[in-house]
Amino acid sequence: MSSEVRDLLRKYLPDYKSTRFGKIYTDTTEFMNIDHSDVIKLGNQHFLVLKNEAERRFGLVDPKYWVKRGKHLESGQPQILKLAFYEKFPMNIGPFKIECYRSPRKEARILELVKGDMRFMQGCSNNDEVGNNVRVLDIIRGKRLDIVVYNISVDHKTYFYEYFPDILEKYIGSCEAIKFLHDHDEKHGDVRRDHLWVESGTGDYRWIDFDYAFELYENPFGLDVFGLGSILIYLVGKANFTMQTLLDLKIEHSILETLNSGDYSVVIGNRVVNVRKIYSYIPESLNNILMHFSSSSTVYYESVDELLFDMRRCLKEIRGL
């Protein structure tokens, strides 16, 4: 098999330097076995595997062996291949119990739905010879929105007045993108801040990773709405506030002493939602949006439309219109 790979690379990548020539995989079921210098064949298309992708969260690196960074040999384009991987797990948010699971074919449907819509990652899907669905994704050149925000080197007050209005306006556009999915009876499924990227050059905000799905019978789109709220909380505070974070920021103890259990997130119990207690210049109307995601809230947003209505009104207030 190595000779076949060597012949492919000589044809399509004559300058490729490697001491290893792997196998050609037409069945991607055992994705853990597919590694550097192997080739995945989908129909008549060939993809050279360069490495496994990894997720970096909370200072840890978590390899994603079912996600391969590679190169499409016929075109020379770098691409990401997401192989079929299934998992299921429960999640509790306030009074809601949610069953979450991974669905490759759901992601394939969304890729088809959003083709040409640059608010989302782009790609296509194909099946390997045994029917595993493989998504072939274009690579977005850019950075996660939360990293872009974190790297704005100003104090919070300057950030809020000089940067946040433009960020909020573009974030509203990202929420409208999620509404587009809901209007077509689809869910993103894993709305969180590392899944919203800022593209270099254009500055466009773009959603990635659509393969999670969930069952929440009380509100079919509720988990997406909670995810949008969590991102907004980060954008308002320019950080996720835990008690340790607040101590590191040297927030006055007199302020910290005012925090109570109702000021924390209903989703992540140690995260402060009531940002106005930390920064008093946060408009009350904006803070009220954040408090819909607090453990003290008795009313949650039921749709992205409701969240958008309040955010648009707050944006006008912040801009002084």
UniProtKB/TrEMBL annotation:
The family database entries (InterPro entries) matched by this protein are listed as:
Kinase-like_dom_sf
Could you tell me the superkingdom of the organism this chain comes from?
Bacteria
What's the name of the protein?
Protein kinase domain-containing protein
